[in-house]
Amino acid sequence: MSKKTKIISFNAFEMNCISHLSPGLWRYPNDQALHYKDIEYWQNIAKISEQGLFDAVFIADVLGVYDLYGSNDIGALKTALQVPVNDPTQLAVIGASVTKHVGFGVTAGVPFEHPYPFARRLSTLDHLTKGRVGWNIVTGYLPSANKNMGTSELPHDDRYELADEYMEVIYKLLEGSWEDDAVILDRESGDFADPSKIHHIGHHGKYFDVPGIHLCEPSIQRTPVLFQAGNSTRGRKFAATHAEAIFIAPPTKEYAKIAVKQVRDALLAAGRDPYSAKIYCLATIITDSTQDLAQAKYNDLLKYASTEGALVLNSGWLGVDLSRYNLDDPLSNIKSNAIVAQVEALSNSTTNEGKAWTLRDLIKLTGIGCQGPKFVGSPSQVCDMLQEFVAYSDADGFNLAYATTPTTFSDVVEFIVPELQKRGVYKQEYTQGSLRHKLFGKGDRLGHDHIASQYRVNGAKSSINDYAGTGRRQFTKKDIEYVI
């Protein structure tokens, strides 16, 4: 694909909590974030997203509390900053029950759930959504999560080593355990499945031992669409190996260009087409019918933004206690075991004034939508900015963080989508089929150029060994369909 004018894509960036990336805005008149516990709230988010032809409702998650700021969790609890937080996975089924097309990307961390039950969760979601689920693979960055799981916090790069093996187990279960024709539904014999076509995976690794079969029959996509948000050096290597959609959070257009190129280069180095994965940038859109109304809306929203909440959030993202910094201290020498990519973004970019980022700048930037850019203006102005950003950075679209929910999303659907469609840079309708086919137009399942294809069984009975004398077939390297 060339860098011609692209079709711009949107995801609704949500989280099963009160304050996601705009702490304090739950107090804004008519904001609905306090209804996060209600099924109807999530059904409405899904309907709005589908009305706007969004690719997906991208649901973030953390399994821990932001307790680095001030070395305690007081600020997070006072501002409802991503706590309380409910499980994200059920939201995919809730949203899919009232929509036909929009996808659902659910976040789950590999250090916190064994791959054997999690593979069942993925297959279940893919079955119930009729192939519209994606998995945002995260390695975790909050030390509080490890403490409460009773596990030691791994160094940043070691988290990705564990994640690589985790993915190997997932691929063996989802792609290699059941052959496509294992389910035979023979009513005469009473045989539901042909056991000779269901394979024990025989995985014995550094972190996991999983000898048996996958518990679910194959779903539409088998492996859900793979999202990933790592943009550190090690994170990019992992994403380039596994991901189909990559989320980055650059604070400026200029750094977005650098970050996108790094991802494209990593894909190429991994032997993949550099455009085989879609890249979504974090952003927030504040718009109305005119520039004056949009700017007035933004100014009004800022009155409710919580400085304390922003510092709590950024302390967690950067892995440092920002209460120890003065307002004008530069943020260029942070050493982090958290989201290294965000540290790199602040260290390797400058503010609009061309100077190093300080705590004062960070507070100003992140009151609404955290570290992503804000596009404020009339539909025409915002669309100009979106097109310029995509053309300059080579990104594919945006994960849209809300200021208020669901109004931020409904404003985008009302004002921005029609203008982009009029310009020919936004889809007019959904493609039929699974989320993967909607995104790439190449079918429901991962392609033969993806690493997961290496774990598919070729079905040649002569190459299958008995498993532990049971007469069942063991998954061995001889069974693997290698693709060069």
CATH-level-4 superfamily name of the largest domain = Luciferase-like domain
Number of domains: 2
Cross-sheet strand order for the largest sheet? 1-2-3-4-9-10-11-13
CATH-scheme architecture of the largest domain: Alpha-Beta Barrel
Mean pLDDT: 88
Q: What fraction, in percent, of the residue positions are helical?
A: 25-40%
Helical stretch tally? 15
Task: Tell me how many strands there are.
Answer: 15
CATH topology of the largest domain: TIM Barrel
Strand content: 5-15%
The description of the largest β-sheet is: 8 strands, parallel, barrel
User: What is the global morphology?
Assistant: globular
CATH class of the largest domain: Alpha Beta
User: Radius of gyration over alpha carbons?
Assistant: 23 Å
Structure report:
The chain has 484 residues and is an alpha/beta fold. The protein has two domains: 9-305 and 371-455, Alpha-Beta Barrel (TIM Barrel), CATH 3.20.20.30; 307-366, no CATH class. It is built from 15 helices and 15 strands. It has helices at 39-51, 74-79, 89-96, 115-128, 143-149, 156-176, 233-242, 253-269, 291-302, 307-318, 340-347, 359-366, 379-393, 407-422, 435-440; strands at 9-15, 56-60, 103-109, 133-138, 183-186, 191-193, 203-204, 209-210, 225-228, 245-248, 278-287, 374-377, 397-401, 465-466, 473-474. The strands form four sheets. It has an eight-stranded parallel β-barrel, surrounded by seven helices. β7 and β8 form a beta hairpin. α1 crosses α3 (89-96) and α13 (379-393) packs across α14 (407-422). The longest helix has 21 residues, at 156-176. The model is unreliable at 336-341 and 459-484 (pLDDT under 50).
